[in-house]
Amino acid sequence: MILPAVLILGCSDDEKEVSTEYPPDPLTEIPDARFEAALVNLGYDDTVDGNVRTSAIAFVEDLNLDNREIENLSGIEDFKELVNLSVRGNNLENLDLSANTSLLFIWAENNAITSLSIGQNTEIEKIGLSGNQLESISLSTYTRLQLLTLANNQISRLDVSAFPDLNTMAAEGNPLNCIQVSAVQLDNIPGNWSKDATAEYSEDCP
């Protein structure tokens, strides 16, 4: 008995099913619900669920988060193109902006900041930190500073001698006896500098 031949057909590589699925967008964790609610309000997110699409925030240059009762700014590190950040009137104790290397303007007045990290961006021009709880601050590498407000903190030593373009400074309300300046600054103290009467400007503070 002769059995009929069985023809087995296989699929060519061209006929194989091609997947149209794409990997999910990376997410940035936003643990502070008030921070994320602000991002929803600004249109960078759609719901408060603990994270935001990284691609939605990566190219944001200007971010205003004033008066939102934010306590934790974790997630700000993924705002890679951020130039201008305002977080005035929140409840921040730590402010870590070391990953935001495009920043030029930082406005963080009236928080409870005791720890500050800005990182290595030497182009920063304006920093507002009045009304916090800083005991010390080191800004010597930011030589392009034009504005620095530190009023009403707990700073006991301040050296602004490395900032030739510093036109505006507020240092009153700190336990300062001496503010170190350069010889050029001492000869012509800018009119927009302010300090307590008990503090003096000097080239050589003890």
TrEMBL record:
Source organism, top-level taxon: Bacteria
Signal peptide positions on this chain: none
InterPro entries xrefs: CDIRP, LRR_dom_sf
Keyword tags: Leucine-rich repeat, Repeat
Keyword Phosphoprotein: no
Record carries keyword Membrane: no
GO molecular function, one term: signaling adaptor activity
UniProt name for this protein: Leucine-rich repeat domain-containing protein
